[in-house]
Amino acid sequence: MVVGSNPAAPTSIRTSLEDARKVPPISELTRIEPVHLDRLDRQGVFTTGILLEVSETPTRRQTLADQLDASTNDVLTWRDEALMLNLAGFGADEHILLSQAGFEGLRQILDVDLDAFRSRVARAAIELNQSRPSDLTLESWWEQARTLEDE
């Protein structure tokens, strides 16, 4: 039996396990030192969703930075990338594509207009020899970034 597939398990446990499978793991962050990844893991922060939760406010970011012996700027950098990784329809391949296009986090997406975003992603897709996401997908990511701007 697969863990989390037990229909007799409490709903909250099943939901947590199912959600954990959908949220990118913390190890997908590219702008974090291995020592900080290990410390996050020891703090129980093993998904980008949990990272976003524990770094939601300036006080929480400071607390997390203190616990990890990191700076609040480090935490903001990780949070920025985690926000991008949690865009709908976004996975590991898309992360590579956007990194190739020069978008390592949400802030860089917010710094460009939609046409520039599309153009840079299209160039990156050519460079990586992969298909470009649809215009609808690109517009969705760009709009989601705008929605998350205040995070």
Flag low-confidence runs. Answer: 1-20
How far is the N terminus from the C terminus?
A: 39 Å
Number of strands: 0
pLDDT averaged over residues: 86
- β-strand percent reads under 5%
> What overall geometry do the principal axes of the alpha carbons give?
elongated
Number of domains: 2
Q: What's the architecture of the largest domain in CATH terms? A: Orthogonal Bundle
Fraction of residues in helices? Answer: 55-70%
The radius of gyration computed from the alpha-carbon positions, rounded to a whole number of angstroms, is 17 Å
**What's the story with the biggest beta sheet?**
none
Order of helices and strands: HHHHHHHHH
CATH topology title of the largest domain: DNA polymerase, domain 1
Class based on secondary structure composition and strand pairing: mainly alpha
How many distinct helices?
A: 9
**What's the CATH class of the largest domain, please?**
Mainly Alpha
